[in-house]
Design goal:
Blueprint: E1 2-11, E2 14-24, E3 28-34, H1 40-47, E4 55-60, H2 69-72, E5 75-78, H3 90-100, H4 106-115, H5 129-142, E6 147-151, H6 159-175, E7 179-183, H7 187-190, E8 196-201, E9 204-210, H8 211-214, E10 217-224, H9 225-231, E11 237-243, E12 246-254, H10 257-266, E13 269-272, H11 275-282
């Protein structure tokens, strides 16, 4: 469905993506995570055909998406601040969605307009941030595009509306399985919906693994300094903090029975790190942290 092979891209001679290779051949909901400037938006814009790579191959459904109307029929890329006509109403947006997306789901669009309580005749430019985000969500989900890319789709939504979006996303995916890529900083909220996680760091794909495996990453150990140093001598420590004679570390290991047994034998406290904390520490500058 998507194929990126050794893709390089620079902006004003500054490298943004470096030797990115990414393949996905089956319908799946996948999260994209990375710090600001990691290359997430650039990666999505290349997949959507908005830009052309300096080198390497980008294909969606076997076609180069750049300047390719046939490929665009398979695509819907909703940007964080998606450009919509300044005089458009929600009704106008729906009409344009029907025109550009052959698989458009009008019933879903109308139901989501009601769920998000969007006025049909008010200009979108006068909407609140949350209402604009809801309009963009409707355009993305109702498109039924085989490749649906959503960049920060919950920005501006309150907790209730985010829950509406997550339910609608799953319902839409179950009715029409397709490849849905979601870039979001709310990784703890979206991870239950996603089957895989792509992590970008400094323009490269650092991780691309099943979400089930990623959820188990990151072990927190607390105890006496000597005991902690002993059990972590041969593993990667990605966070460390000391208070008096007590040391707390996060190690880049799966939360497993083995580590529970080790902690119990050494009298250490053990916890599972949150996915968000694990990713933040996994992608931070490790200078000063014990290797």
């Amino acid at each position: 469905m998507i194929h990126m092979e050794q893709v390089n891209y620079s902006y004003q001679k500054t490298p943004v993506l470096n030797q990115v290779t990414l393949h996905e051949s089956e319908p799946i909901i996948s999260a994209i995570w990375g710090r600001n400037g990691a290359g997430k938006t650039t990666l999505m814009s290349l997949l959507a055909g908005h830009n052309r790579p300096d080198s390497g191959t980008v294909q969606i459904m076997g076609q180069d998406p750049y300047n390719n109307l046939a490929a665009q029929e398979h695509l819907c890329y909703i940007q964080e601040n998606h450009p919509l006509g300044k005089n458009w109403t929600v009704s106008d947006m729906v009409q344009m969605g029907q025109y550009f997306h052959p698989q458009w789901d009008q019933d879903l669009a109308e139901r989501l307009i009601d769920v998000f309580e969007l006025p049909g005749k008010k200009k979108i430019i006068k909407f609140s941030k949350g209402m604009k985000t809801a309009a963009q969500i409707i355009l993305g989900l109702a498109s039924n595009a085989k490749i649906t890319i959503l960049d920060e789709p919950t920005n501006g939504l309150d907790a209730e509306k985010r829950k509406f979006f997550y339910n609608a996303l799953l319902e839409s995916y179950e009715d029409n399985p397709r490849l849905i890529l979601i870039s979001s900083h709310h990784i703890e909220e979206i991870q239950p919906l996603c089957e895989s996680l792509i992590v970008l760091q400094d323009g490269e794909v650092l991780l691309n693994q099943p979400m089930e495996e990623m959820r188990e990453k990151g072990v927190l150990l607390t105890g006496r300094i000597d005991d902690i140093n002993q059990v972590t001598a041969d593993v990667k420590v990605i966070e460390s903090s000391q208070m008096g004679s007590t040391l707390k570390v996060m190690i880049d290991e799966p939360y497993s029975k083995m580590w529970k047994d080790i902690a119990h034998a050494q009298g250490l406290s053990i916890e599972k790190a949150t996915l968000q904390d694990y990713l933040v520490n996994r992608t931070r500058n490790q200078e000063g942290v014990k290797p």
